[in-house]
Amino acid sequence: MTQKQTVVIIGGGPAGLTAAWELMKDGGADAYDVTVLEATREFGGISRTVKHNGNRMDIGGHRFFSKDDRIMQWWRDTLPLQGAPSYDDRKLGRHHDLEPGGPDPETCDEVMLKRHRVSRIYWNRHFFDYPISLSPNTLKAMGPKLTLEAGFSYLKSMVHKLPEDNLENFYINRFGRKLYSMFFEGYTEKLWGRHPSQISADWGAQRVKGLSITEVLKNAFLKLLPKKQDSSKVETSLIEEFWYPKYGPGQLWETVERNCERAGVRVITDANVVQVRQEGGRIESVVYEDCEGNRTELKADQFISSMPVKDLVNALGAGEGAAQVPADMSEIANGLPYRDFVTVGLLVKHLKLRNTTDIPTLGNPPIVPDCWIYVQDPGYKVGRLQIFNNWSPYLVKDVDDTVWIGLEYFCEEGDSFWSMSDEEARDFAIQELTRMRVINGPQDVIDSHRERVKKAYPAYFDTYSRMDELVEYLDSFGNLYCVGRNGQHRYNNMDHSMATAMEAVGNIKTGKTSKKNVWSVNTEQSYHESK
């Protein structure tokens, strides 16, 4: 009988838990001894579901959609698709392509809902389609003068291309200077705390990929045709249907964690990795600290890390007798920037916004149908509003008579907004919603919750331009695999993070030494949103 390979996985988010399950499924316990170290007591990382007084918050909003068929099947194997109408489907007379033999969301919790995406932009007290489209509503909200300006500006951008050496030029080349200044410039600076001219075009290339006015027009035209489009051929930013766990994204990761434990994975929570010990070009062990400050060393054959690259490199050089991390690698790692994130949840009696779309919604009076509302208007600090009622009616305790909203704020850990008290953050959020004419004022608010998220967004400036040097250094440790959003310092979607873990596990199983496949997820053409 061959000896089992021991594998330590750092992080219980999408990448870490995907790696654990990929190793252990189909009898993997005979070949692998797997331990997951999670620094908190919750699973899913920024894909967790936050519970507050019977209501649930999805941090950042997570659509379950991927162009990678392996991942769509993986999700479906974890939580089966609905086979009967959900609460809001029934009340609104909505019909989806229900899954034959699938569970009934009204009687079963372990179920994936089919959802219709509506996202719009709020600018100058008007709603615009998201992504920007040339619909009659858009033209009406902009008025004839702005429409002509935007049109001529776009035509100019088609002829006169700017060098794509920063994010500003990337957007102008695709949308024209006028639309860029209206809908991208202020919002991008709000999100990153830097002007788009200071940010690498890589970020835009990754997040909007094939999206442009041309794609928007093509998509609008195809919608007029009777044949239903194959969603795998549509730009991801334009996808209008997605799957969603009944109780939010965290429900899926909590289910995966339970499945892993049942399959034999040892999961340790409150395990903050503080040292990574190396010898002879390989990782020997990790040392983690529990909530009482006790330290434990774990040796293993293979290590999969989804902890932030900055923390990983610092842990490699930490502790007595630690091998010295080269000064230039330490400099790159510690210069990698992040944006942090605060969500303020407000439970309100009703919205002032009226549903002027033809999409039926719950509520009395009916609420707007949006999952997200992007606040591109530079007059407000809030970046996006989430209306949790529309993600899943089961996220809201009293979905017929209350509206559960999340206001998303981008900030730096320790800055004035991050450091506000819960009450100050709540009052600030109420004030902004009132000014936006979304609610009448504090009298409409029943309850609130503030959630802070560190290192939510790996950022593409400062030492990021030297990331390839750091990748080469980390890859020199033959038994270390960096996966996930923070593990690769890449603004991955959840499915991309999962794919990095699948590639890493594939390498461990086959003995493949090059890690190019692990790092090239979400950069290769096969992963691009435009096929």
UniProtKB/TrEMBL annotation:
InterPro entries: Amino_oxidase, FAD/NAD-bd_sf. GO terms for molecular function: flavin adenine dinucleotide binding; oxidoreductase activity; UDP-galactopyranose mutase activity. Residues 86-106 are annotated as: Disordered. GO terms for cellular component: cytosol. This is Protoporphyrinogen oxidase. Residues 15-443 form the Amine oxidase domain. Pfam families: Amino_oxidase. Residues 87-99 have a biased composition (Basic and acidic residues).
